[in-house]
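Bench notes, afternoon.
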Amino acid sequence: MYTIDFTGKVVLVVGGGTGIGSAIARAFLDAGADIALSYNASKTGAEAIAAEAGRAGRRCLLLEVDSRSVPAVEAMVDETVRTLGTIDVLIYNAGLTDPQPLFDLTEEHWDRTLDINLKGMFFCARRVAASLRDQGKPGSIVLLSSVHSIQAYPNHAHYASSKGGINMLTRSLARQLAPLQIRVNAIAPGSIYVGPQRDDLEAILAPVTSRIPLGRVGQPPEMGDIAVFLASERASYITGHVLFADGGLTLPLQLD
């Protein structure tokens, strides 16, 4: 059977209490990993994952962290290493989507989005890389980007700028960390449905799915599978890559 095994590995999932982040955390638990899980406003979701980890015999460290704060982000990394011994994989999923019309977009909106989505990501990745360097270990970093990084949508100037920055940050970190055998990649999800299931869901999503070549929105567990793959030895020759998981949404426009 073709499997990916993370038994004995420690994975830090930043922003793992809900949605894509929680699906990624569960995917690593299924692969045998111990996890550290940061959350901000999603304590209930984080606690549910910790309970699942306990039932599976895995260690799970919960950390409440404001990803806008560099000291808080660095302390999170240090606490994970102290408690769980190391960090083999970093998944940085913490992010803010706060659509604002262009002329209503304030400095506060801009700073909050860039601080969570990009600044916190950089300082977290750098701290994890330093820990791996000091321990003399290889590792893997997977960052969460978006289709907004290459496609322009109304009211998303600040968000798109942060995600475009993630794409270049991925490549820059990959180039600098390759000599340490630390791989850095990113996932750029398209339309991923994270809400509750309902009978009229297909009709509600129709305006979105009509623009997606595969004809459906993605599901969070699909992002979890991609994260596990990119972090694993199955992807050992992949670094500096932004993988668009979007059902074909960013394919060139068809005119026929």
